[in-house]
Amino acid sequence: MGKYVILYSGGMGMSEDPEVMQKVMEEWGAWYGMLGESVVDGGAPFGASKNLVSVGAIADGPLGDTPATGYTVISADSLDAAASACSEHPHLKYGGQVQVFEWVDMG
After folding, report:
1. Where does residue 61 fall: left (phi above 0), alpha (psi -120 to 50 degrees), or beta otherwise?
2. Do residues 73 and 3 lie in contact, with contact meaning Cβ atoms separated by under 8 Å?
3. Residue 90 — pLDDT band, cuts 50, 70, 90?
């Protein structure tokens, strides 16, 4: 089994409505529950960012039109299997995008 990084971008952000947030958290919990022991690192949302696009140049804010908003790491038999596990991800229901990257073990 390999490891795969799921990178989240876009989406609705954190709602101020507690009922909406409760629903979203339940959906994410159900998704994590469906994956079970395949979850290697439950991840976290991202906060503020800095961009370094050349030596000595640091800029505030996200890079690109759709900034990364968080990550999760899972184990799966293949990149296709990892992507399939994300096909019904709750982040997609709220305007977000999900990218799946193969984790290349350098050790």
Report:
1. left
2. yes
3. very high
CB 43 within 8 A of CB 71: yes
From residue 43, how far is each of 24, 40, 65 by CA, in Å? 16, 9, 22
Architecture of the 2-46+57-102 domain: 2-Layer Sandwich (3.30)
Domain extent listing, the chain: 2-46+57-102
The two beta strands, 57-60 and 50-54, are antiparallel
User: Running DSSP on this structure, what letter comes out for residue 34?
Assistant: H
Backbone angles phi, psi at 34, to 5 degrees: -65, -35
pLDDT in tens, 4-40: 999 999 887 767 888 988 999 999 999 999 999 999 9
Q: What is the pLDDT of residue 56?
A: 81
